[in-house]
Specification:
The chain is α/β, with parallel strands linked by helices. The protein contains nine helices and nine strands. The structure holds uridine-5'-diphosphate.
Length: 239
Amino acid sequence: MTKKELKYPRVLIKLSGEALAGDKGFGLDHETVNRLCDEVVSVINTGASVGLVIGGGNIVRGSLLAKMGMDRVAADYMGMLGTVINALAVQDVLEKKGIETRVMTAIRMEELAEPYIRRRAMRHLETGRTVIFAAGTGNPYFSTDTAAVLRAIQIKANLVIKATSVEGVYTADPKKDKNAKLHEEISYRDVMMAELKVMDQTAITLCKENNLPLIVLNVHKSGSIAAAVRGERVGTLVQ
Ligand code: UDP
């Protein structure tokens, strides 16, 4: 399939930090990072241009530290630094698989990565490089989900994929309710009204305002992300 025939020629994939921790629940599990990077490589192999936003929940979650008494802003900066650690780990694994990548950070740290400059990011993507956007939005009180949607809009991505450990968006929490059903498709509005915890409200609002489709899928099902990019039915489509 050529890039022109792809339903979504440019995608932004959001990987949560937790996904990188595997069963350990904390830090990085090399085996898991390797497997997730294989999924990213299969997307790149479809010919799509790919941006990645990686969370930091496997290292620091700002809101949790704040609950324990830490200043929220400082805790959030720690969280953003966590996303940089994850981005460097993913960059290393992707490059070993032969993928040309750039890490761009929303907080300057030029010894280790480029600062995020939108025009430069576009240029990297046009030349076929995979861009890993790190340090979230660069602002405390935001999430990497919001960063993912923000970057997706800025790089003119056709789709945001939220790679999770569940199949998609359910009518209820499938872990608590056996009768929970998977939505094949759902509107932004319904996600917002039902307060389904797909993405935070800021991220969903940004998707809605910019007509950016979102697919929520299970990243542990091999081939799912690539299938979504080709336009096959996987997970839940929010639009
Ligand atoms: N964070 C932030 N601003 C951003 C993105 C992230 O302050 O724009 C902080 C926040 O503390 C958050 C942490 O970084 O808890 C890790 O990001 P997130 O929780 O979104 O990661 P994920 O849940 O996807 O692993």
